[in-house]
Amino acid sequence: MTLRHPLVLVLAILLATASPGIAQDRNERQVALLPAEGLMEVTPELRNRLGLFPEVSGFVRARLFEGAPGPMVLEIERREGGELRRERRELDAGALAEFRADLTAALDALETRTITTREGRGGLVLGQTLLGLAYHGWAIPVALDIDSSQAAVGTYLLTAGAHFYLPYRLTRDRTVTDAHRNFTWYGGTRGIGAGVLLVAGAQGREPEGSTGRARLGGGSVMGAAGSLAAFHAVDRWRPDEGTAALWGLMGDHGFATGAALAYILGPYATEEVEVDPGPGGLPYTESRTRNAPAGHFMTVAGGGLGLVGGHLLGNRREYTPGNASALRTTSILGAQSGMTLTRLVGVDDGRTLMAGTLAGGLAGTWGGDHLLRGLALSDGEGLLINAGHIAGGALALGLTYLVVDEMDERERLYLSTSTAGSLLGAGLVWRAVADDASRDIRGSESRVRVSVDPTALFADVRRPLPPLVTIRF
């Protein structure tokens, strides 16, 4: 194999100068060689196509591992005399960045497409099939105004089948990562909502007796377009799974922010309108949304701006899927806290209350992003924080109900205790998982330790009670 790529020279230098004989750390975890491509290891086939490791005979595979804070370890397996041998080489941050950049360039330089992974293909096809069954299958017959029950059922089945076959066929010869799978699902589901809102905004008030055919059709068209656009966005910018999750999270925040602003500024606010039914009828008053079409456009525009913001934030620093889940929790906690504080100061106006909720949500997003710097949470750790948030709020609400025994005119009390419980539950779980997930390059850690012993609630009162909450410095 000739040295066709600069990557070969880089690897040769790294392997020649790196220190051999590194002992394997049992706490190491495997990380992707190229996170954006989902490439976990170099196989013999890929090695031959790219001209990698020409000096290694009997090559089996190459993988990358991360252990305690320090250099990454590139492990190369080879067979020699019927025995499996491993060479482990350290790569510091600079060498790792150069290695990944050259590996990406080598893949791009190939004349034919190289499939690096298909891990996300099954989930992507399944997700699109479910969308066909749950929405597109019935929305399209309604949008086309098919009256015959036989034709409607046939159209449903054909649409659902197409939502399996087309993704299956189009991804047959393509790399499909977990980022492709998750973000395509996001594009398909949010595209449906965006399509319905855009058509509703263009129509204005829905005609009397309308079945919403145009809106359902708009949701179907935008849902399919959203799936395609999301897949190609991952191809274009190559985010890893965590960055793609961040895009979707910020897109959802954008939709919520757009809708909240539409309510605060007036389009989604309600007003009382006096209706004159005409000759012979008695005038009456009804409640209407002030300018729903403008509100719909603001909501969709907010979602688009949220996606742009997620892309910009993802370029600034690395996010894991667990980090994205944790950021969702901090945003919701901020919104809860903003609503609670606004309500506690005696605000009853809905638009002012919404403004406090929005301000709290934005503050929670900013604060969560700040707290996540230096952390790399796993999927499970992020979900634990979500669960702690929900469980803490539910526990506090339940205990308050048992003590108070009624809910009438106690809105502020229940709102306050549930918010406090959510903050405590999420905070305690956050603290527990952050110790293991810390990636602070300075190695500094807070010395504060908080532990909770629920058994103290059931201890024998005749004996010294153990502490319920312990704080160590």
Feature tags:
single chain; 473 residues; alpha+beta; five-stranded antiparallel beta sheet; two-stranded antiparallel ribbon; 13 helices; 9 strands; 11% strand; disordered N terminus
Describe this structure in words.
β3 (59-66) and β4 (72-80) form a beta hairpin. The protein has helices spanning 6-17, 44-50, 93-109, 121-143, 149-170, 178-203, 213-237, 241-265, 292-316, 321-344, 350-371, 379-404, 411-437, and strands at 29-31, 41-42, 59-66, 72-80, 83-91, 270-275, 284-289, 449-452, 469-472. The strands form three sheets. Strands 1, 2, 3, 4 and 5 form a five-stranded antiparallel beta sheet that branches. Strands 6-7 form a two-stranded antiparallel sheet. Strands 8-9 form a two-stranded antiparallel ribbon. It is an alpha+beta fold. Helices cover 59% and strands 11% of the residues. The protein is globular. Residues 1-25 and 439-450 have low confidence and may be disordered. The protein has 13 helices and nine strands. α8 (241-265) packs antiparallel against α9 and α10 (321-344) runs antiparallel to α11.
Topology:
Layout: H1 6-17, E1 29-31, E2 41-42, H2 44-50, E3 59-66, E4 72-80, E5 83-91, H3 93-109, H4 121-143, H5 149-170, H6 178-203, H7 213-237, H8 241-265, E6 270-275, E7 284-289, H9 292-316, H10 321-344, H11 350-371, H12 379-404, H13 411-437, E8 449-452, E9 469-472
Antiparallel strand pairs: 1-3, 2-3, 3-4, 4-5, 6-7, 8-9
Helix pairs in contact: 1-3, 4-5, 4-6, 4-7, 6-7, 6-8, 6-9, 8-9, 8-10, 8-11, 10-11, 10-12, 10-13, 12-13
